[in-house]
Amino acid sequence: MFSWLGTDDRRRKDPEVFQTVSEGLKKLYKTKLLPLEEHYKFHEFHSPALEDADFDNKPMVLLVGQYSTGKTTFIRYLLEQDFPGMRIGPEPTTDSFIAVMQGDVEGIVPGNALVVDPKKPFRKLNAFGNAFLNRFVCAQLPNPVLESISVIDTPGILSGEKQRISRGYDFAAVLEWFAERVDRIILLFDAHKLDISDEFSEVIKALKNHEDKMRVVLNKADQIETQQLMRVYGALMWSLGKIVNTPEVIRVYIGSFWSHQLLIPDNRKLFEAEEQDLFRDIQSLPRNAALRKLNDLIKRARLAKVHAYIISSLKKEMPSMFGKDNKKKELVNNLGEIYARIEREHQISPGDFPNLRKMQDQLQSQDFSKFQPLKSKLLETVEDMLANDIAQLMVLVRQEESQRPTQMVKGGAFEGTLHGPFGHGYGEGAGEGIDDAEWVVARDKPMYDEIFYTLSPVDGKITGANAKKEMVRSKLPNTVLGKIWKLADIDKDGMLDDEEFALANHLIKVKLEGHELPNELPSHLLPPSKRKITE
């Protein structure tokens, strides 16, 4: 009797079974989250409904910055070729949003045609109207970099009198729309003009809740001396600290991202190291794309839940007949108290609530009588999705990552330093002497031999204990010295001969000079007498 109750309960608790992460995200959104969003008018307040293209598209990188900070040049540098519609100059040249994407032939797709293409993730941009769509294009071209990622170039953010002229569309709202859907947001600053205009400040605030995607590039850093660069970097961090309200420091990459000679080459090594770090970050995007989409869906589901509680609470407080207008004004003014009550009753984190002032402004134009009361079944479905289905998708994400070969962005500037003598760190640290005919350690071996013969060698070898006495003088931690020992003890007999001892000292010198140790000994560091052992 009542066995159907237990069956229904089990059906609700058993997570869905999916073949791929993309398919799972689409199905969960359409069947479990979208009904809640539609019931409580989520799309009118926060973000348009997601479509299949939002789940299937390649990772996207959004470039944001004031005019003449090098956004378009940065894309040109990555692709190592011009793209359709590209304009570069010291004045505000890029007056459009340009989605740079992979295509079989070069060409430009205008905005009005772009937002009706179901294969592109831009259909919902239709809501921003013709004033925006006339300033939105897609530049398509065949390029190996674009096989893995797409890049969004944006109009330069204005300063001074220019920012008083209206663009004809809500610039900050468009950027916020893109921020929700891209995988990385790169804010570019010019080392010569760090002033953050009112429009730029408004834009950065609109990107709030997406700090995890944000990276900062201090561009054109080759145009100033080292001492000035230090001051500029400090000033930039101070300015960002006033606008980006997070206790963590945003990662700032310093460099000069164009293909011309460095004007002041003093900090060349720093720029190379920073460029490699940024490239590694961008190259990891395809590998982490599924996880990012999953994370964004969870964030959206949490916001949709809170939104449902807010709308249903407002509906509950409204009178059925008279005094609706006055009650609406009162509820909007006291929205902060409603937030606090919902937070207490449902144990919701304050960080999950939408911006109070923005929500109050949006509620002014809404008809509260059309709001829906609380529907527990819709909320329970989303709770079940977060508790069970998302956990299964997390497992599937890891499985897909392990089954696929390492996904990385290739081509363009990413290939330029991959091989050959211009690779980052080539010929430095453990790589020193890689092209030399002679063993690089031999240069300092006479000095190391003097120490070696003071350590009481027996049959041409010193014990581990005696080697340790000398090696700990470097003051390196035991974990590092242990790694050096493993690399230097080539024949694995627990002792070091004169060549192995010289090698150990060479590796200590490499580490003390600030370089990383290799995981395996490079062939050029093998002592000449040991090269046959390893073959």
From TrEMBL:
SUPFAM superfamilies, alphabetized: EF-hand, P-loop containing nucleoside triphosphate hydrolases
Residue stretches making up the Dynamin-type G domain: 55-286
GO molecular function: ATP binding; calcium ion binding; GTP binding
Domain EH: 444-532
Membrane topology note: Peripheral membrane protein
A single Gene Ontology CC term: plasma membrane
Pfam families: DUF5600 (PF18150), Dynamin_N (PF00350), EH (PF12763), EHD_N (PF16880)
Protein name: EHD3 protein
Encoding gene per record: Ehd3
Compartments, record wording: Cell membrane; Endosome membrane
Transmembrane regions listed in the UniProt entry: none
Domain EF-hand: start-end pairs: 476-511
Keywords: ATP-binding, Calcium, Cell membrane, Endosome, Membrane, Metal-binding, Nucleotide-binding, Phosphoprotein
